Backbone:
């Protein structure tokens, strides 16, 4: 899905940005990471160009668009984006910037409209991105062609079981290929219900001091912190108030590391379900085993954690899906939805929503611990000595293999394996010129 190529008169040549070879920042064979990858402003600018711009990024859920004209505004990296359902019932995504002076044309979070009109000079665009009105158009030269100045559309947009992704990269592989083996694990959350999923309760947004990668890597690989960081929350949630039993604390489990940078960790103990009792009682686990198989019900569907590279994460049993929007090297915004199965009765959907808020919402008992950790990690990253430390990612090193049960390469639950995979992918993209850096290429064509 590509926008109409602009003629040479519509664009200017761009000065190429200098790039940094980030190879020296990693020794992933030995589990070592240079801390400056979280704080260096020049690396941050490079990752916007080479990690975010070329990758498939999560935008929204299909259930947010019910009628033509429905829209939702979000970001791809730091680029503001409008996602809209057109009159033809096709979902499209555009850069949220007027082609006249670059002003944000839609400043609402979500809603319904027939057109987006820039409040600066009044250029107006319909929900398919077409420029439909230019005030004082008679004062423009004869060679001004209105149909060439529509909104800049993403190069590709696709969905996976209700999740909407897009990329600016016209050369990116199809979404299904970019998700790779991760789809088997994602389906433990997305394919429980023949009717699919929907989001409820709106979008919760909050800001944190911390680099977005700290959050993305934790959701990909870090069960290690659970018993320490979340000790008080686990006590509150345990039946006797003393915390979970030892067999739950030291739960067995596996961690999947995808060669494309995705990761999913999950317990395999039958009692590793911290979900709401109403939700738990509603599920027909025999039917789920028939649909998903024993392995998924006993593993990825439990209290696991996952990241789809680069910045989309989810918690299957909580129904939490979220995106880590970068806002500079030291700050991120977290946008989170509650995902439910469509066939759930309303009272079960509401129970899942409330449970998600209590645990992993902006005031959730687990979420608060995580945000504090990431902010503290970032707070000590700006000194000369503390900012140049080598960080240890060696847990689980040389213990990953195909186990014959779970697809792909997995290791123990307590491992940095998926984090190493995440940074391998990040390093490789950072060292590879993106499509827009090739001679003759343009970001808006």
Residues:
């Amino acid at each position: 899905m590509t926008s109409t190529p602009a003629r040479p008169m519509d664009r200017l040549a761009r000065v190429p940005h200098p790039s940094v070879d980030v190879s020296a920042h990693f020794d992933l064979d030995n589990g070592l990471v240079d801390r400056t990858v979280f704080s260096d402003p020049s690396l941050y600018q490079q990752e916007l160009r080479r990690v975010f711009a070329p990758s498939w990024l999560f935008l929204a859920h299909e259930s947010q668009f019910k009628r033509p004209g429905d829209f939702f505004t979000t970001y791809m990296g730091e680029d503001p984006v409008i996602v809209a359902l057109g009159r033809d019932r096709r979902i499209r995504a555009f850069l949220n910037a007027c082609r006249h002076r670059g002003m944000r044309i839609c400043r609402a979070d979500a809603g319904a409209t027939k057109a987006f009109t820039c409040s600066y000079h009044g250029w107006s665009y319909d929900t398919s991105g077409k420029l439909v009105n230019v005030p004082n158009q008679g004062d423009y030269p004869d060679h001004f062609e209105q149909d060439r100045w529509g909104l800049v559309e993403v190069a590709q947009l696709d969905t996976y079981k209700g999740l909407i992704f897009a990329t600016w990269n016209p050369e990116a592989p199809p979404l299904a290929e970019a998700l790779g083996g991760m789809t088997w694990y994602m389906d433990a959350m997305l394919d429980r219900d023949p009717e699919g999923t929907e989001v409820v309760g709106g979008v919760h947004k909050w800001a944190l001091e911390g680099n977005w990668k700290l959050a993305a890597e934790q959701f990909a690989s870090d069960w290690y912190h659970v018993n320490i960081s979340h000790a008080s929350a686990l006590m509150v949630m345990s039946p006797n108030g003393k915390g979970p039993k030892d067999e739950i604390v030291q739960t067995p489990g596996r961690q999947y590391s995808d060669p494309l940078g995705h990761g999913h960790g999950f317990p395999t103990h039958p009692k590793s379900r911290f979900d709401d009792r109403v939700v738990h009682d509603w599920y027909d686990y025999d039917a789920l085993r028939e649909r998903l198989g024993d392995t998924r019900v006993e593993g990825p569907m439990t209290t696991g954690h996952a990241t789809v590279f680069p910045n989309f994460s989810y918690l299957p049993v909580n129904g939490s899906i979220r995106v880590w929007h970068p806002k500079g090297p030291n700050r991120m915004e977290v946008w989170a939805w509650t995902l439910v199965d469509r066939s759930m009765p309303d009272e079960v959907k509401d129970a899942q929503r409330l449970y998600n808020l209590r645990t992993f919402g902006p005031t959730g008992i687990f979420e608060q611990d995580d945000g504090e950790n990431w902010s503290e990690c970032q707070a000590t990253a700006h000194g000369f000595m503390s900012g140049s430390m080598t960080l240890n990612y060696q847990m689980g090193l040389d213990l990953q293999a195909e186990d014959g049960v779970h697809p792909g390469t997995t290791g123990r639950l307590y491992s940095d394996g998926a984090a190493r995979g995440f940074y391998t992918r990040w390093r490789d993209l950072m060292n590879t010129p993106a499509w827009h850096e090739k001679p003759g290429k343009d970001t808006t064509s």
About this structure: Residues 1-9 have pLDDT under 50 and may be disordered. Residues 56-168 form a domain with the Rieske Iron-sulfur Protein fold (CATH 2.102.10.10).
